[in-house]
Amino acid sequence: MDGLIGDLSKIVGAAGVSDRAPERSAYAHDLWPRQLIARRAGQRPSGPSAVVWPESAEQVSAVLRYAKRNSVRVAPFGAGSGVCGMTVADTGTIVMDTKRMRRVQALDIAKGQAVIDAGMLGQHLEDTLLAKGATLGHYPSSIACSTLGGWIVTRGAGQCSGRYGKIEDMVLALDGVLPDGEPFTVGRPRAGEPDARALFVGSEGLFGVVTRAQMRVWPAPVERRFLAFTFATLVQAWDAVRAIYQAGLRPAVSRIYDPFDTYVFRTGQRRSEGEDAREPAARHPVEEWLLRRALPASKAINALNFAFGERLFGRSLLVLVFERSEGEPVDDAVAQTRRTCLACGGADEGEAPAKRWLARRHSVSYRQPGTYAKGLWVDTMEVAAPWARFQALYEGVREALAEGGFVMAHMSHAYPDGCSIYFTFVGASADDEQALERYTRTWSRALEAAHYAGGTIAHHHGIGRSKRRAMRLEHGAGVSIIERLARAADVGGVMAGGPLLPEADEGPSEPALSVPSRDIAIDATSRLVTARAGCAMSALREALDGQGLELRGAPTSATVREWLATTAAADVLDDPLDHRVAGYLARTLDGRYAHLPAAPRRAAGPELWTLFASQPEAWGTLESVTFSVHAKDKRPAFTAPFEASDWATSDNVRAWIDRAAKG
């Protein structure tokens, strides 16, 4: 141990490394609820052999080279606020905390670009940008205790994604260090080559360490506008949200609360006037006793809520927040949104509920530790689906979670093609061993329910050890391709394993898939079109024309496969909500199917479709693609200007992808 600390001190300085017990304990794991239950039960991981705090990409490179020479594993670490078990560090592991790399290196608001160190905490980043008249627009609940690098490698989303998109819509280029210690750059893909950015975004540390990013930024907002409506049913509420985004309107925030969550929201509003949102709730022994005995019978409680919730608790609440930059019109958008909500059955509740949400939007996360102290456990699950599958997703996952605890939900992160559902479930068991078993069983059921309802298993928290058992459902044979990429990037086994990749016997097997029988299938409700890869673009355009829809930027000649083979189709687009490819199906060289089910964004590892599009001889052939399409006359009223990155992808990244292609 002394030799390890001495060696690392020569790289990062004596103040940049520690093997003290408090640091080893603090960096042993993130905030995965299963790990918190296990720790409460006395099951404590040993913790890493050392923690290092590099201050530059050069130091990151030197630590990785040292680790490779000495057969030590490295676990990158942002701020530890992850809830999916991406970090579980034990003896023989170095945890690399990047938070000393924390500056905005460059900012050009006119070009809509900023260069930012990956270790910068979110709140510090946003404060720095706002002081200079810009915003990234990424506001997760964990903004005070998460980093830019953490957002990128987990494909995170912020609360204002309705205007600014998810993190993958903001990444223009990346710098980092491969596991062998070699620095790399990934930039704008050239026509006919894979998009390496799409491989690193969502990679959860498998392929190396991200050290710096060129990000899309917007002019800072100068005004917010608030709206709130209640609806007799949840369906009315999400129909209103669908109509808003499909009309080209871009509220930064749209949140629908189910009847019970609305009841909690309104009860909290009455109780908390003048209360500091950061203060923990007072303990109530009688309430705790009742909860511990009632929650194991949560299935019956949930059944009552599911059947009679709208009668018991009343209407569902929708809150909306618009943000406006200098010179940007917003009055018409707000007026059109109000008309849409009223036409869908909404009752105008004024500005107060939305303003209250904004004032207290970070408070709930900081109250959760008290739940564990009471002997309970709480977790959240964020899934997403196209609008046509949205009700099936809501009902299927809600039912699957019902045996694990009391369930409530809100819908947020809306897009023209679909929306995310954020479930919260609270459980209790007689002891912690039973809690661990029940917790694991609940997650297994819910992940399968999300997939078979037609949704994605993760919208913005990432995968980690929490959800990796369902990765074959999400990617099919694509999991094997991620494994090939990981082996080729990390020949020496430097990066600490665990996230993303399931064990051989972990979780369900690949789903049975087949090529669509029709050349073109249009889901007008979700504004999606699925086309076989050999379909002519002219035929696709004609079919969309017949329903008043368009695939923006698409040519009029060639086939779908030919177009995607020659275009940098994964570029960050002008409209952050226009993500073009929503899903795909590909036949790998060994005859299996890799796929992503159509979803309005996801956080389930790297995006692989550009490998099949640009290098079919190495990876396999695209069989069908699902595109996000739009009404011809419903373009967004405003998008901030920006310029694409001029950073070039380095040769060692291209060589890595080529090595992986050879197996």
Question: In a nutshell, what does this entry contain?
Answer:
Helices cover 35% and strands 21% of the residues. The protein contains 25 helices and 25 strands.
Would you spell out the secondary-structure blueprint of this structure?
Blueprint: H1 2-12, E1 17-18, H2 21-26, H3 33-40, E2 50-52, H4 57-69, E3 73-77, E4 93-97, E5 104-108, E6 113-117, H5 122-131, E7 134-135, H6 148-153, H7 161-164, E8 171-177, E9 183-186, H8 196-200, E10 209-216, E11 218-219, E12 221-231, H9 234-246, E13 253-257, H10 259-271, H11 285-294, H12 298-313, E14 316-325, H13 331-343, E15 347-348, H14 352-359, H15 368-373, E16 377-386, H16 390-401, E17 406-415, E18 418-427, H17 432-452, H18 464-467, H19 471-475, H20 478-489, E19 520-523, E20 528-532, H21 537-545, E21 549-550, H22 560-566, E22 581-588, E23 593-596, H23 609-614, H24 616-619, E24 620-628, E25 630-631, H25 651-661
Parallel strand pairs: 2-4, 3-4
Antiparallel strand pairs: 1-2, 5-6, 6-10, 7-11, 8-9, 8-10, 12-14, 12-15, 13-14, 13-17, 16-18, 17-18, 19-20, 20-24, 21-25, 22-23, 22-24
